[in-house]
Amino acid sequence: MELRDLGFDQWFRDRREELNRPDCTVARVTAVNRDSYLVRNESSEVLAELAGNFLFSAESILDYPCVGDWAFVQYHNSDTFAIIQGLFPRKSFLRRKTPGRNIEYQTIAANMDVALIVQSCDFDFNLRRLERYLVMINEGKIQPMLLLTKSDLVSPESIRQRISEVRQSNIHCMVTALSNITGSGLDQVRQVLEPGKTYCLLGSSGVGKTTLLNHLVGRDLFQTNTVRAKDGKGRHTTARRQLTVLDQGAMLIDTPGMRELGNISVSTAIDETFTDIQELSRSCRFTDCTHTTEIGCSVLMAIENGELSEERYRSYLKLLKESEYLQLSYIEKRRKDRKFGRFIKSAMKQYKKR
Ligand SMILES: Nc1nc2c(ncn2[C@@H]2O[C@H](COP(=O)(O)OP(=O)(O)OP(=O)(O)O)[C@@H](O)[C@H]2O)c(=O)[nH]1
Ligand SMILES: [Mg+2]
Ligand SMILES: [Zn+2]
Hints:
Layout: H1 10-19, E1 25-32, E2 37-40, E3 45-50, H2 52-57, E4 70-76, E5 81-87, E6 93-97, E7 105-110, E8 114-120, H3 127-139, E9 143-149, H4 156-168, E10 174-177, H5 186-192, E11 198-202, H6 209-217, E12 242-245, E13 251-254, H7 262-273, H8 275-281, H9 298-304, H10 310-327, H11 330-353
Parallel strand pairs: 3-5, 8-9, 8-11, 9-10, 11-13
Antiparallel strand pairs: 1-2, 1-4, 2-3, 4-5, 6-7, 12-13
Helix pairs in contact: 7-10
The structure holds guanosine-5'-triphosphate, magnesium ion and zinc ion (ZN).
């Protein structure tokens, strides 16, 4: 095995030249634990920790290693242990807002080529959620693919129906229905997976991500768990993100089922962060008050009489605007981006004419 087989392509080789760390070798982060990591190179996979100066210079959570990252490492104890000295820039990455009141992000995985969105054909199928995944994946510059699992639990007609709903929503990524029980559709997935490329399984708990991975590995390497019968909800069995190299050469990152996507909960997080404004807005005259121009808006009145600082109000509006953009559907967002692109173009033309 060579580093190239683990995804270390020309782009990373160029970065290696630029970064010039002759004191280190290169390895890929394959798992993230609470405060240790697994890193893998041409010959082995070993436990690793962060160098002290790494901890010192990290400014945000996004600076810490995540699964899929390429790292500069130093090996110790006859290559049985490694210290991570630094990270390569990420060619692509997925992030989401961390649960809780702070508006902070968390990296899910880095340097993957394709994100496999997994929804089950029965309880879990949901177009809105699918669009939100697509927004996140689109932002990460990653190619999406949709896997509809548990096809054994619904009729062929209902599978066709689901796929046509996807198409009607103008979503054009590749879609495959599969069953981990009967094995139908698994060959199609195997054919898609290219050696040297990295794939990431994303989706709710209990949809069968790990079961699929075990099928592709060829044995029950990772733990799976039954779902609740009444609503098909999973039990959050997979607890850490881990990269597995398949015998056929593709790499698959399994992730814990997501309760919420960051961009779904941004507006809730904003309300939680600005409880004072939330409180005030209850006595606005209109229930759908945007607190910008309305008559009888208690938020505007509170600014007027000095109860609420203008600065806080501004940062509230700014975050709200951002979250509105995040909550646009994938399609709307693309449209908006294009519109904005055209706007810039025509503005540049006007400018040049002058
Ligand atoms: N009928 C049916 N059951 C499936 C299928 N795929 C997975 N299951 C079952 O669904 C349950 C959950 O599967 P997991 O693979 O643990 O789900 P997961 O997506 O990894 O869940 P988390 O690790 O919690 O995120 C297990 O009992 C599986 O046997 C399928 O295609 N058909
Ligand atoms: Mg799992
Ligand atoms: Zn108002």
